[in-house]
Specification:
The complex is a heterodimer of chains A (249) and B (118). Chain A contains 10 helices and 9 strands. Chain A is of the alpha/beta class. Chain A has a single domain, classed as HUPs (Rossmann fold, 3-Layer(aba) Sandwich). In chain A, strand 1, helix 1 and strand 2 form a beta-alpha-beta unit. The longest helix of chain A is centred in the last third of the chain and has 25 residues. The C terminus of chain A is likely disordered. Chain B folds into 2 domains: 51 residues; 37 residues, no CATH class. In chain B, 53% of the residues lie in helices and 0% in strands. The chains are: A alpha/beta (249), B mainly alpha (118). The interface between A and B is medium-sized, with 34 and 36 residues.
Chain lengths: 249, 118
């Protein structure tokens, strides 16, 4: 059976991605995370899952809502001040959070034998550090380590086109404010704070490609160690890899 | 592209927007700091986050005060008011015709009274 996992918040991009994937795959695993550091209103995602199931059928979607708090703490929070002294930018928080989510997603895929992973990254929100092309490229490399492919099915679809498409499919669109749809997905207060200078002053977020690439490459090592540790704690080797962990079988 | 930016990055804001932004940003920054330090009393991890926030938002506050990467007042300067001087890049050909051939462009740019057309 063709299956794929999708990082899912219930916002415009991930809902559009879920629709497109539901038309191509027999089963879509929707993965929703809260990081335990300023995320709220997770129930909004559940409502969106209900909408998707009503439209495409219950059996089409599997939904997991779980915490990435401890993973995020290892990836970035435990040495946050030292890391900030190195990078001098708040992107380390958002990227560290996202990397923790990808770590948990890789674990989910490995545990469930899923070889295709995706998210709702969009070129319309390229100001977000985790949706820069360099970030997506390195995330793809991270998954390849486990024999998992990574795709961004809605990256090239303009936001307006997504909004019109979802509206025509009958999805709740929330309140539209300055081109954004408010009230349809969980809130991330830390993320809002990071982009406050951009929203208030049109000040470009400080995350240049070289620094972002250095950060992801460095923290991917921690993420890999977390994946190994996850399976080691359960007395299992990482699925699809040799017990020594030196390559995909 | 060295920095990804976003659609609004580097676009000018008016002085009113800049002041309003600071009115929002400063209390927000201090409130978050106070909240984190309060919560940090019982958690070393949150104390670490509070310290991170203080450094990050302090760097932001300094760069916002210095207007680094912020274009302020450009839109306002593009608006030509009756009593004010037009910006120097405004074409003056049409004005020349209105005020006659002895119109002194420099006088207008320097915000002096235009020559009397009569």
């Amino acid at each position: 059976m063709a299956e794929i996992a999708l990082m899912f918040s219930g916002g415009i991009d991930s809902t559009m991605a879920a629709c497109l994937l539901a038309e191509r795959y027999e089963r879509v695993h929707l993965l929703t995370y809260h990081n335990g550091h300023g995320t709220a209103h997770m129930g909004k995602t559940r409502r969106r899952v209900d909408e998707l199931r009503a439209r495409y059928g219950n059996e089409r979607f599997e939904h997991m809502l779980t915490s990435t708090k401890s993973l995020m703490e290892t990836v970035v929070v435990d040495d946050l001040v030292e890391t900030y002294a190195d990078y001098r930018s708040g992107f380390i928080w958002c990227m560290g959070c996202k990397l923790a989510m990808h770590t948990r997603s890789a674990i989910y895929c490995l545990e469930n034998g899923i070889t295709e992973m995706s998210d709702g990254s969009s070129g319309s929100t390229q100001e977000m550090v985790e949706q820069m092309l360099v970030s997506l490229s390195l995330i793809r490399t991270f998954y390849e380590h486990y024999g998992i492919s990574f795709a961004t099915p809605v990256y090239d679809i303009p936001r307006e086109e997504e909004q019109a498409d979802l509206r025509s499919r009958g999805f709740r669109m929330g309140l539209q404010v300055l081109g954004r749809n408010v009230g349809i997905q969980p809130s991330c207060y830390a993320g809002l704070l990071y982009y406050a200078p951009y929203m208030l002053f049109h000040k470009a977020p400080k995350h240049d490609e070289a620094a972002v690439a250095r950060f992801i490459e460095d923290r991917s090592q921690r993420a890999h160690a977390l994946v190994e540790g996850w399976f080691a704690q359960r007395g299992k080797p990482v699925p699809g890899r040799t017990p020594s962990g030196d390559g995909v079988e | 592209m060295p920095c990804c930016g976003g659609k609004k990055s580097g676009k000018p804001i008016s002085r009113v927007q800049y002041i309003a932004g600071r009115v929002v940003f400063t209390p927000l920054r201090l409130a978050v700091s106070a909240g984190l330090h309060g919560a940090g009393l019982s958690s070393p991890r949150i104390r670490r986050i509070a310290s991170f926030w203080d450094q990050l938002s302090g760097d932001w506050a300094r760069s916002i005060a210095a207007k680094e990467g912020i274009l302020v007042g450009v839109e306002a300067a593009d608006v030509c008011t009756v009593d004010g001087a037009p910006p120097s890049h405004v074409a003056v050909g049409a004005l020349d015709a209105d005020f006659g051939s002895d119109w002194d462009e420099k006088a207008w740019v320097d915000d002096e009274a235009p020559p009397d057309a009569a």
